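Thread: Newbie trying to understand structure tokens

Hi all, I'm a second-year student working on a class project, and my supervisor (Dr. K.) asked me to get a predicted structure for one chain before our next meeting. I've only ever worked with sequences, so writing a 3D structure as a token string is new to me. If someone could post the tokens and maybe explain what I'm looking at, I'd be very grateful. Here's the chain:
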Amino acid sequence: MDPAVVTVAATAATTLVAAMTTDAWGHVKGGCARLLGLAGPAQGAGRDPEREPERELEQARATVVAARERGDAQGERAVVDLLAARLAAVLEANAHRADEVEELLRQVLAGNAAADGQIDALAQALGRRGNTVYNQWVDNGGGGAQGPGATVTVHHHHHVPGVPGPS
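---
Reply by user tm_fold:
Sure, no problem. This is what the structure looks like when written as tokens:
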């Protein structure tokens, strides 16, 4: 995983958890929920995919509040680590939406001067990746291109031993 992704995800998760018991919670939660929503709708019966990221964040908040009441720093750290992993996965999966990701991160991390440089580094890393076409060789020959806007046509030929192939 790109170090810029890991750094920004950790900063965002730490900021999010720190805001969970402050007046900033509503603002930070909204931006983070939109960011997590980039991962796509949650699967499951009776779930509202639009509200799932907010529900996830409220559950995380309840865990953090309970951990703080018990003086459980490890419990709080576990939430930071979980959110950092989730955010990193969203950032990696959405390199093709670098501008939108950058805007959401700036909303979530507003007021965190140290995060500006991290977001700039992430935007550069995502921007480079979003414009890249990757060549891929497939087992037993063949090739293709992967990346935004690239198309791949796969031809699979079966060869039966002992039977002559096409001439």
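A couple of things are worth pointing out once you decode it. The CA atoms of residues 142 and 155 lie 8 Å apart. Confidence is low (pLDDT under 50) at residues 130-159. Feel free to ask follow-ups in this thread.
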